[in-house]
């Protein structure tokens, strides 16, 4: 790959990875510990990721169990979960916290599938914007006599191929996540 394209490929990779992280946080009826990735717990005055204050496990398909390293963190963890946008009330037995995920309704599944598609479309727009930035940079380099016209066309063609590859990857990710959500 041409050095001048690497920076744009890196940006496209970051956009795609951000989409995959967003998808990991969308719950699809089954318990997925990644839904807790964005939750921070007040740990001695410092917002700390939930994964760093306890052990997270999935004992059953629709249950996540959180075993805090320190018992006094149970209240803080409960508070963090309740104030998050997770929409699940934690239950605690004094030593651990359980999150029980209800079955998703058909209506909720369709809303989540629509959200998945919307996030996919936003990622595609981001990828196309990166391609546009690359093409503008190549035109500017041509204008400043740093590139020949043939080199500019070749770089633009490679940028288009890169864009097509990422758009195709996004389409596959959208399809897989939608299928996962719609499967009962």
Automatic annotation (TrEMBL):
Taxonomy, superkingdom: Bacteria
CDD domains the record matches: RRF (cd00520)
This protein's UniProt keywords: Coiled coil, Cytoplasm, Protein biosynthesis
Subcellular localization(s) per the UniProt record: Cytoplasm
Signal peptide stretch: none
Domain Ribosome recycling factor: 21-182
Statement: the UniProt record of this protein carries the keyword Cytoplasm: yes
Pfam families: RRF
InterPro entries found in the cross-reference section: Ribosome_recyc_fac, Ribosome_recyc_fac_dom, RRF_sf
Coiled coil regions in record: 131-165
Function (record text): Responsible for the release of ribosomes from messenger RNA at the termination of protein biosynthesis. May increase the efficiency of translation by recycling ribosomes from one round of translation to another.
Stated family: Belongs to the RRF family.
HAMAP family, per database record: RRF
Family matches, as NCBIfam families: frr
Protein name stated in the entry: Ribosome-recycling factor
Species per Swiss-Prot/TrEMBL record: Hominiventricola aquisgranensis
